[in-house]
Automatic annotation (TrEMBL):
This is TetR/AcrR family transcriptional regulator. It comes from the Bacteria. Keywords: DNA-binding, Transcription, Transcription regulation. Residues 1-20 are annotated as: Disordered. PROSITE patterns: HTH_TETR_1, HTH_TETR_2. Residues 18-78 form the HTH tetR-type domain. Pfam families: TetR_C_11, TetR_N. Residues 41-60 bind DNA. It comes from Nocardioides fonticola. InterPro entries: DNA-bd_HTH_TetR-type_CS, Homeodomain-like_sf, HTH-type_TetR-like_transc_reg, HTH_TetR, Tet_transcr_reg_TetR-rel_C_sf, TetR_C. Residues 1-11 have a biased composition (Polar residues). The keyword DNA-binding applies. The lineage of its organism: Bacteria, Bacillati, Actinomycetota, Actinomycetes, Propionibacteriales.
Length: 214
């Protein structure tokens, strides 16, 4: 290929950036929320974004690439929250703020990708590394600050405890149909999370003679 031809080909390729990129991301998220990841197609996104499918494939190699990129760039996804000084306050800010699981459309997005996490290895790998990992890190950092302040026990298994709030809240919202509200988040924090990390583990009573197998 000649230099002139290479230059012509490069300059003729559509550049997807800025406002146009954001429009495509918004179209992707609309299709995702309506159809779910399994039924989302590049054709549907192209139609919603008023773009050609070729334009999408020049920028994103697969629908997994496109959907993960759209979720990463969703408004507020990289919002940095200022520490409140308490574990309770930090958790409420994280979960009820603009980037939290209960923010606008976040529940719909998560529900739309649940089955794909089991069925599509490419998507699952990208989603866990690029979308979930930063959220998990932010949640863990909140607990690490609480440990440093002496607010919770230093023997707490953070890998086990940090996902507790999201797990319980999303279960109640997605499985049980409970409305995703701040009040729900506060109930889970006050009745499950804080007692689990602040209270010493209960000691088991010593077995009596009757309880010892013969």
């Amino acid at each position: 290929m000649s230099v002139d031809q290479h230059t012509t080909d490069s300059t003729s390729r559509p550049r997807v950036e800025g406002d146009r990129e954001q429009e495509i991301f918004e179209a992707t998220l609309e299709v995702l929320a309506e159809a779910g990841y399994d039924r989302l197609t590049m054709d549907a996104v192209a139609a919603a974004a008023k773009a050609s499918k070729a334009t999408l494939y020049r920028r994103w190699r697969s629908k997994a690439d496109l959907v993960v990129a759209a979720l990463q760039h969703h408004k507020g996804s990289h919002l940095m929250l200022s520490p409140t000084g308490t574990l309770r306050g930090d958790l409420i800010d994280l979960f009820c703020g603009p980037a939290g699981p209960l923010a606008a459309r976040q529940v719909d997005f998560f529900a739309s990708v649940v089955t794909a996490l089991h069925r599509d290895p490419e998507f699952a790998t990208r989603f866990r590394a690029q979308v979930l990992a930063p959220k998990i890190a932010a949640s863990r950092a909140i607990y690490e600050r609480a440990v440093a302040r002496g607010e919770i026990r230093d023997d707490v298994d953070l890998d086990l405890v940090a996902p507790m709030l999201a797990g319980v809240v999303l279960h109640r919202v997605l499985v049980l149909g409970e409305p995703p509200t701040r009040e729900l988040v506060e109930r889970v924090i006050d009745q499950l999370v804080l007692p689990a990390v602040r209270t010493a583990p209960p000691s088991l009573p010593a077995p009596t003679d009757r309880e010892v197998p013969s």
